Amino acid sequence: MTWNGPSSPGCHPLSKRKTRRATSSPNGDVWWFANPGQPKELTREELAAVSEDQWRTKLLDLFTEDDGPARDLVTASDEIFAGWNTYDFPKVPTWHRDRMIIIGDAAHATSPASGQGASMAIEDAVTLAKCLRDADSVPAAFAAYESLRRTRVERVVAQGKRNGDGKTLGPVMRHVLPLLFKLHKPNPDAMDWMYGHRIDWNSSATAAR
Fold first, then answer.
1. How far apart are CA 125 and CA 140, in angstroms?
2. How far apart (Å, rounded) are the C-alpha atoms in residues 194 and 114?
3. For 16-73, what is each residue's pLDDT tens digit?
């Protein structure tokens, strides 16, 4: 499917009231996702019982009062994937044991609202490689890796939770929030700790922790 929206690739919001994003590729194809809130968690059986047509109808209903291309994208999509529950894991207590270690979502699964899942996995891989390069042993490398990564990734997970909660609005805030966005001028540096994170490959991973 195609979308005659922003011509350059990138993520674009589809809705003011729900978590919706789309990205357009250079050839005009569009990949999008929707993260509608639920009053209660659906069981695996309840999710399996919802047909593709029912998911499409639900999304169209949710977008009834929204401006933008959201309904057009839902209608034009040849296939609507079945929904699933998403979870935040604020803290995973154990990251490594002996010569085994977890990285990426296995260590710090975060809400899609953070937009940082893949980035954090790449950061993990680079940091772990540095630690294995610089440490005297595998256990020491794993300990150094966890020391360098845990505080940051748990902060990102918490931020993703706040982002997701902020998009589940009541009927009053649905009307008030757009006005607040117009009046509030965000500080461009406020999220630099997340988006501006850099890893110096040439520095020692074990010199100062």
1. 16
2. 10
3. 445 566 777 777 778 888 877 777 888 999 999 999 999 999 999 988 877 778 888 8
